[in-house]
TrEMBL record:
Gene3D superfamilies linked to this entry: Protein of unknown function UPF0759
InterPro entries with a match to the protein in the record: DUF72, UPF0759_sf
Protein name listed in UniProt: DUF72 domain-containing protein
Signal peptide interval: none
Biological source species: Sphaerotilus microaerophilus
Highest taxon in the source lineage: Bacteria
Amino acid sequence: MVWDGEYSERSLSRHGLTAYACHPLLRAVGIDRSFYRPLTATEYAAHAAQVPADFRFVVKCPALVTDAMARDGDGRRAGANPHFLDPEMAWDVFVQPALDGLGGRIGALVFEISPLPPALKADVPALLQRLDRLLHALPPLPPTAPDGVLAVEVRDPDWLTPDFARVLKANGARYCLGLHPRLPPIDAQLPLLRALWPGALVGRWTLHRRHGPRGYERAEQLYQPYRQLMDPDLPTRQALARVIRATAAAGWPVHLTVSNKAEGSAPLSVFALAEAVAEDLAEKVADPPAAG
């Protein structure tokens, strides 16, 4: 679907991104490993060197900044994280290296805030103050990254309030549409996008709702080797198509990444989504709004 045959992991790690970036529908890719370990500007630059100038990266901020809890080597909670939503740490380990290494190929720098402990969720206004302080301290990505935006993705529905939208809008940040079972379905998240209109669309379609919030391993077992749409999610796909078409028609960038765990095969999800966008566009052309 993407490459012209079967290749070793070593070959794909060396040449796969360059081949991927030649595909007309695969114009962006997510860098998720930065969540587990901060990457250097040199590492980012190595990615940028493999793709054309019009290709974009959607990059996740290290958990060092976005997880309220410190973790031990096995990922278990090990007390409060002193760097949670810290602006200086975010700049040093994420924003500056990404700008220096990826430059104009940045699509979105995403702060995915991990699930919060109950004590923090009990005081959402304090969380919003932290987030506001973080976003306010970071400089805009243009002109280094003309299409680049800062985006915030969450894993707790407690965040999804009008006050959250106001903090994002006041700082020129975008809401990253989080298509994950921890959050409400896409239709329930669209009011946030409307509150932040106009602007770029950023989204991450990561896991089918049928698997629940901890279902990555189950989805992986069911879907490998990711060669067919095992669980087509038509409501999500159609809603995404409408939002993509409207955003692009208004002249704003669209940065969407899709996981194999969304429907069973990320490339086939992208192809089906492109067809849905085309169908939605055809319907709008065939039924233009009445004059007057």
